[in-house]
Amino acid sequence: MSNKHLVPEAREGLDYLKMEVAKELDVPLSEGYNGDLTSRQCGSVGGEMVKKMVADYESKL
Prior knowledge:
Oligomer: single chain
Helix content: 55-70%
Order of helices and strands: HH
Number of helices: 2
């Protein structure tokens, strides 16, 4: 499995969303190395990102 984006132009928007969600969840995410975060913290950020993206998509249907 690779870590490539299907739409490379979306990287900036995804990074912004990730930081926004981390702030909402009080996860101390920073640019660069985040090896001090737990899997639970990282997973909660990713899960919330997916929820927001799905909700946004559904609202546009």
